[in-house]
Amino acid sequence: MNHPSPAITERSSDRWISVALSVLLHGSVIGLLVYGWWSFRKPPPPPTLAIDATVVDGRTLNGARVTPRPPAPPAPPAPPKPAPTPQPDTDALQKAEEQKQAELKREQQAAEHKVQEEKVAQQKAQEESQRKAQEQAKEKAEQEAQRRAEDEAKRKAQQAAEQQRLAAAKREAEEKRRAEEDKLSADSAAELQRNLAAEERNVAARTGPAMASWIQQITARIQHAWIRPPSARAGIDCTLNVTQVPGGEIVSVKLGSCNGDEAVRESIEAAAYRASPLPPPPDPALFERDLEIHFRPTD
Q1: Could you report the per-residue pLDDT of 128-187, keeping only the tens digit for each?
Q2: Half-sphere exposure of 71 toward its Cβ, with a 13 Å CA cutoff?
Q3: Is residue 270 situated within a structural domain?
C-alpha cells in the first residue's frame, strides 16, 4: 500500500498563509499604483520663499535711542520638500497629437493618391488593351475583306475560264454535230437507198413464190399434226397467229377468227405446238417471227 510522501503533503495552514501573502503583495502593488496616479494628477504646491529679516522698532526709525536688541537666532532650515512631480505638457501633447493627425492625414492622402494613380494606370492599361483589340479586329477585318476580294476575283477568273471552256466545247460540239449531220445526211441517203432496195426485194420475195411455198409448207405441217375432234364439221376456216424464234421453235399461238367450236379451236392450237419446230425459209431473208396461217383442212 502506497503512502503519500511527506515532502509533497501540504497543510491547510500553509495554504492560507500563501493566500494571505499573495493578497498582501497585490494590495501593496495596487496601493503604490494609486498613489502614483494621485501624485501625478495632484498639482504641485506653490513654491515658498525663505526671507532673512530683522525686526526693527518704530522708535528707532524716529530717532529715539533704544537699546538694540541682539539679533534673533537664525531660523532652523526648513526640511527639504519633495520634488514636484513633473506635469505633462498639454501644449506639447496637443502639438504631438496634431503632428500625428497630420502625419496620418498625409499617409491617407498618399494612399489615396497611390490608389488614384493605380486606377489611372489600370484605366490606361484597359484603354490600351481596348485600342490594341480594336486595331487587331480592324486588321483582321481588313485581312478578311482582302481574302474575300481575292476569292471573289479567283472565282470570277475561274468562272470566266469555265465559260470560255464551255463556249469552246459548245463550238466544238456544234461543229462535230454539223459534221455528223452532214455525214449522216450522206449516209442516210445511201442507207435509205439501200433500205428501199432491200424492202423492195423483201416485198418481192414475200409476194413471190418462195414465200408462198414456205407458208404452204408450214400450213401443211400444222394440218398434218392436227387431230380432228369428233365435233369438227366440214368447211373449217380459222386464222392462226404464230410467233417463232430463229430455228423454227414456236413460242406463242393465238387463234383469230375461227368457225369451229371450242374443241376445234383447242385442237388447232395443239396442232401448231406439235408442228414445232417449223421448217426454215428457203431464203434466210424471208424469216419472219410473226406469221399468219390460214388453217383450212381438207375433208
Answers
A1: 999 999 999 999 999 999 999 998 898 899 888 988 888 998 888 888 888 888 887 787
A2: 6
A3: yes
pLDDT tens per residue, range 233-282: 888 999 999 999 998 899 999 999 999 899 999 999 999 999 989 999 98
- Note the pLDDT tens digit of each residue in 105-118: 999 999 999 999 99
CA neighbor of 242 nearest in space, from 210, 214, 261: 214
**All 3 cell numbers of residue 218?**
408450214
The set of long-range contacts for 78-87, using a CB threshold of 8 Å and a minimum separation of 24, is 78/48, 78/50, 81/45, 84/44, 84/45, 85/39, 85/40, 85/42, 85/44, 87/43, 87/44
281 found inside a domain = yes
Q: Structural domain of residue 245, as residue ranges? A: 214-295
What's the structural domain count of the chain? 1
| Widest Cα–Cα separation across the chain | 231
Tell me whether residue 188 is in a domain: no
- Please give the single-letter amino acid code of residue 267: S
Which residue bears the cell 452532214?
182
User: 198: which DSSP letter?
Assistant: H
Whether residue 70 lies inside any domain: the answer is: no
